Amino acid sequence: MKMRTHYVALVLFVCTLASCSKEPVGPSNISEAENAKEVEQELLNIVNEYRTTMGFNSLSFSTVAYDYANSHTDYMISIGSINHDNFDTRASKISSQVDAELVAENVAKDYNTASQAFAGWLDSSSHKKTMEGEFTHTAVSVKKDSNGTLYFTQIFFR
Description:
Largest sheet: 4 strands, mixed
Helix content: 40-55%
Structural class: alpha+beta
Shape: globular
Strand content: 15-25%
Number of strands: 4
Mean pLDDT: 88
Strand order of the largest sheet: 1-3-4-2
């Protein structure tokens, strides 16, 4: 059974990596946008409430994941689009810092509230699968660009 669990985790990790592109050389001066802390906390609460309602464990907040989620959200704002660019590097760094065996992320933009972002993820089979994954820790970064558009990054790991 343990072998099967490791195999499934490995397949999930490889599939996640395969779906992400390498981060192109972009702006070198990425500025840090201000966090929408209330939206972040609300989205974290919504995801955890959903998980417990579905019989999954609640996720603990990780400052390591939060730092990487914030950096990625700033990067997405700097190029004006959502993506999983450089996910393999983020996942590797998180894994080395917290000894994680599996890392995943969800991203979004063009939602005005935490509830709308959550509903968008729930309507996407891959995002839903991530939210329902066998993870123990998470962090949510939500920031606004200069036009007021919210960008979301949620990182999960175990």
